[in-house]
Amino acid sequence: MKLAIAVLGTGRMGSALARALLGAGHEVTVWNRTPAKTGPLAALGAVVAPSVAEAVAAGAVVIVNVSDYDATAALLREASVAPALDGKLVVELTSGTPQGAREAGGWAAAQGAAYPDGAIMATPDFIGTEAGTILFAGSSQAFEANKPVFLALGGNVQHVGEDAGLANALDSALLGLMWGALFGTLNAIAVCQAEGVALGMLGRLWQTLVPVIDGQVADLIKRNETGRLASDEQSFASIATHHHAFEHLLVVMQARKIDLGVVLGQDSLFRRALAAGRGEDDFAALSRFMIKRD
Q1: CB-based burial of residue 264 (10 Å sphere; 0-12 exposed, 13-18 middle, 19+ buried)?
Q2: What is d(CA 119, CA 175) in angstroms, rounded to the nearest whole number?
Q3: Is Oxidoreductase tagged as a keyword (predicted)?
Q4: For the domain with range 4-163, which CATH number is right: 3.90.79.10, 3.40.50.1110, 3.30.1360.120, 3.40.50.720?
Q5: Is 158 helix (H, G, I), strand (E, B) or coil?
């Protein structure tokens, strides 16, 4: 079923969303604060609306991809726009916080709109491809009823729960994993450069470690899911064993005057666990020290 869809925001990601919808045969109306950015989409068949109100009026589905939730609110909560959302599907694909998504979902419901909140786990070049991953939270009924629209945006769209904040929660969690790897890589590069190790060698050896690290990450998640935080026969290493090796990294970084900003937080977790007498627990038990309690 082909639908009339409005896309608000045509930056790199918003334009990719609009192109994917046009490619799937939908009738697409676009709006952007800087009209010149809509030109390439108009050439592909999109209708360019001169105002948000006219864009919203043209679409049964309204997809928003702007800078943040405050920007979305500034667009949709205008007196000329909000009443027109009644009966429409409003899809928020702007990055934000779980609480921001919940508040926006409550407001949209009060206007009579269905509201799936989405987190795009891909760069623009993946939008519209089978590998494109987008997580949606909120009304499962609205998600299932409009699934062809969502599938036009990426072949790996997933509904993760009725709570509108869950997609953004997963977005933050998964980006935290990514940044952990990227900042760890910066540490590795700095150590190698300081010690005269060729970065090509680091790259080659990193590839051999990928299966080992993947296995440890999967084990860490599974142990916390099942509550197996104590060391057992399947443990890779205890907290104390990890920390002993970690101290060697600190010595090298201090000696070579490498910035300790990233690793000091990790060292703090180790030391709090050791002070609590949890040194012989599995590394997974460090999760108990991630949330500060009064």
Answers
A1: exposed
A2: 11
A3: yes
A4: 3.40.50.720
A5: strand
Partners of residue 173 on adjacent β-strands: none
For the stretch 118-167, pLDDT in tens is 999 999 999 999 999 999 999 999 999 999 999 999 999 999 999 999 99
Could you give the C-alpha distances from 212 to 173, 246, 253, in angstroms and in order? 21, 17, 24
Nearest CA to 235 among 217, 212, 213, 219? 219
Over residues 44-66, the pLDDT tens digits come to 999 999 999 999 999 999 999 99
| CA nearest neighbour of 102 among 50, 190, 165, 52 | 165
With a threshold of 0.85, does the pTM exceed it?
A: yes
Domain 198-289 part of CATH 1.10.1200.10: no
- Say if CB 165 and CB 135 are below 8 A apart: no
